[in-house]
């Protein structure tokens, strides 16, 4: 039962509100900047009073970067679509490869299994600059440079270790007795994996997929080197807003809002699965 006094409840509510305000204020400020002109943003001292405008969003959607000197075309909406293609494709490929591998590592202990799992995990911590030059040479020789297939293959190397190790823990938390009982009834291992293990680990798989999607969406280095402008995601496309004639802060803010919107909407949609997945296995026995 809750034995807190009204004063303690009020103080806790104020403390939670301050924490939320502290972490959400940068996003709130970016949204405000996206609704202002450059002159309003750069005025000193800054003020919360301004006339909102949607010109920044209209310019990005129309593909036009306006400055005090000139106007140039940008392809931010194309970059946004590239991010969707690369992130969705890489996460889907990593799930297809990583979930069965995670199940194998969780259920079948064999000689060298931990070494192999740790080696796969080490790919996640390897500095991107360590593999950029070999990847560039290999991609050029194989014809994968500046292609969606090549970028998706590189991106899944970021997602696969994350999915493998997270989902492996969820499979290990599922009691093997449930699967053994299903196998005794005459079902094969694949049917057991598909009808028993996958549904029980579903929330954990969804949580791992969402985290992998965020990591893939935020990747910058690989797309910068291995792709040209027509294949680059929003993380690289944002460099177009920094020009010799100046920086359009309002359009940069609008681009940031539009780039975080897909991941935010996906997180809100998958919130139920994310909470269940992160809490799966928290209670033992």
Outline the fold blueprint.
Layout: H1 6-34, H2 38-41, H3 55-62, E1 64-66, E2 71-73, H4 76-107, H5 113-125, H6 128-142, H7 148-173, H8 176-184, H9 189-200, H10 202-217, H11 221-226, H12 234-237, E3 242-243, E4 246-247, H13 249-269, H14 271-279
Helix pairs in contact: 1-13, 3-13, 4-7, 4-10, 5-7, 7-10, 8-9, 10-14
CATH 4th-level superfamily of the largest domain: MetI-like
- Largest sheet: spatial strand order: 1-2
CATH architecture of the largest domain: Orthogonal Bundle
What's the mean pLDDT score? 82
Shape label: flat
User: How would you classify the quaternary structure?
Assistant: single chain
What is the number of independent domains? 2
Helix content: over 70%
What is CATH's topology name of the largest domain? MetI-like fold
Largest sheet data: 2 strands, antiparallel
CA radius of gyration is 24 Å
Number of strands: 4
Uncertain segments of ≥5 residues (pLDDT<50)? 281-285
The CA-CA distance between the termini, in Å, is 24 Å
Alpha-beta content class: mainly alpha
Summarize the structure.
By secondary structure, the protein is mostly helical. It has helices at 6-34, 38-41, 55-62, 76-107, 113-125, 128-142, 148-173, 176-184, 189-200, 202-217, 221-226, 234-237, 249-269, 271-279, and strands at 64-66, 71-73, 242-243, 246-247. It is built from 14 helices and four strands.
């Amino acid at each position: 039962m809750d034995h807190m006094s009204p004063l303690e409840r009020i103080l806790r509510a104020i403390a939670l509100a301050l924490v939320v305000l502290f972490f959400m204020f940068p996003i709130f400020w970016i949204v405000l900047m996206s609704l202002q002109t450059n002159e309003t943003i750069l005025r000193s001292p800054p003020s919360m009073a301004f006339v909102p405008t949607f010109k920044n969003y209209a310019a990005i959607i129309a593909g036009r970067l306006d400055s005090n000197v000139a106007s140039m075309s940008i392809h931010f909406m194309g970059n946004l679509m590239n991010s969707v293609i690369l992130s969705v494709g890489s996460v889907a490929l990593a799930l297809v490869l990583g979930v069965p591998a995670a199940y194998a590592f969780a259920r079948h202990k064999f000689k060298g299994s931990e070494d192999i799992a740790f080696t796969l995990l080490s790919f996640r911590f390897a500095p991107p600059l360590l593999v950029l030059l070999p990847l560039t040479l290999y991609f050029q020789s194989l014809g994968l440079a500046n292609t969606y297939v090549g970028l998706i293959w590189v991106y899944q190397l970021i997602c696969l270790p994350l999915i493998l190790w997270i989902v492996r823990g969820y499979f290990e938390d599922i009691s093997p007795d449930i699967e053994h009982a299903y196998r005794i009834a005459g079902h094969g291992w694949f049917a057991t994996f598909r009808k028993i293990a996958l549904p029980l680990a579903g929330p954990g798989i969804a949580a791992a997929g969402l985290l992998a999607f965020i990591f893939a969406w935020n990747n910058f280095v690989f797309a910068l080197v291995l792709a040209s402008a027509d294949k680059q995601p929003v993380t690289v496309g944002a460099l177009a807003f920094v020009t010799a004639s100046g920086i359009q802060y309002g359009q940069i803010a609008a681009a940031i809002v539009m780039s975080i919107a897909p991941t935010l909407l996906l997180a809100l949609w998958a919130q139920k699965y994310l909470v269940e997945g992160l809490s799966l296995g928290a209670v033992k026995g």
